[in-house]
């Protein structure tokens, strides 16, 4: 997954570059984090920009009440509630009771809004660096690049259980499409289409790669994925392009399998 974006199939918060980082909002005319005047509405920021600022404020300051958010962002409480309702519908924030430390006072604890795991994933994380550091350690300590390749194969094999199930339930001419749908469930935004003539077969296109930044440094991840595609589809496949190498889409050519051969080759990669 690229940094600062939301995983497909989960929450739908899309962050502007100004909000992915820890800096202040730079757009002229936006309400500042510490307003000097009376609360003001969204001005020219737009619905999505203001919604992102609400989420960003919760990230920076922790679980917050409607009143706290309104004061920090220079919005009315009614406007904050409206944005919180939309963020909750997108699984970005959730309401909870404020944790009370020490003796509990009378009355119900204040309701605060906190980011969900999905909401946190919308902001920049250092997972890519952590993964790359871990693979580099494996290479240095556990047997070089072949150890990284073994890890990559084990990783994709664990993911492949769902892919195998989807393909086994599809007909011979529907396997590429079934694999594309299964990959999309894991965030790869995949499609399958007929390959351009004169080639006979299909192209599997992955429009997003959650591990692209790490795969730039460790191509074993792409190689293991290609191997598992061949195994699952029961035919040799050819990787034509990858996002990790700077291409816009990961593209894999899948040659057409004769109908009389599909049954005998399904589930394995022919020599």
Automatic annotation (TrEMBL):
Any GO molecular function: DNA-binding transcription factor activity
Which parts of this chain are annotated as the region Disordered? 29-50
- Pfam families the UniProt entry points to: HTH_24
Top-level taxon in the UniProt lineage: Bacteria
UniProt-listed SUPFAM superfamilies:
Winged helix' DNA-binding domain
Query: What protein name applies here?
Result: Transcriptional regulator
Taxonomic source organism:
Streptomyces naganishii JCM 4654
């Amino acid at each position: 997954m690229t940094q600062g974006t939301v995983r497909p199939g989960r929450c739908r918060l899309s962050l502007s570059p100004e909000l992915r980082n820890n800096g202040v909002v730079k757009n002229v005319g936006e309400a500042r984090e510490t307003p000097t005047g009376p609360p003001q509405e969204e001005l020219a920021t737009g619905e999505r920009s203001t919604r992102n600022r609400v989420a960003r404020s919760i990230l920076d300051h922790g679980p917050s009440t409607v009143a706290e958010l309104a004061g920090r962002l220079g919005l009315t409480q009614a406007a904050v509630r409206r944005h919180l309702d939309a963020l909750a519908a997108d699984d970005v924030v959730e309401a909870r009771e404020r944790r009370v430390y020490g003796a509990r006072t009378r009355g119900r604890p204040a309701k605060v809004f906190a980011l969900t795991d999905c909401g946190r994933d919308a902001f920049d994380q250092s997972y890519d660096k952590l993964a790359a550091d871990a693979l580099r350690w494996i290479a240095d300590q556990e047997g070089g690049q072949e150890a990284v390749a073994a890890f990559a194969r084990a990783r994709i094999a664990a993911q492949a259980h769902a892919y195998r199930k989807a393909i086994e339930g599809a007909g011979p001419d529907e396997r590429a499409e079934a694999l594309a749908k299964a990959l999309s469930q894991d965030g790869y935004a995949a499609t399958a289409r007929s390959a351009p003539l004169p080639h006979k077969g299909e192209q599997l296109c992955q429009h997003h790669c959650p591990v692209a930044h790490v795969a730039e440094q460790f191509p074993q991840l792409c190689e293991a994925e290609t191997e598992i595609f061949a195994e699952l589809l029961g035919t040799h496949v050819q990787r034509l392009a990858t996002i990790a190498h700077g291409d816009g889409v990961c593209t894999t050519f899948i040659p057409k399998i004769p109908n009389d051969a599909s049954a005998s080759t399904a589930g394995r990669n022919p020599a």
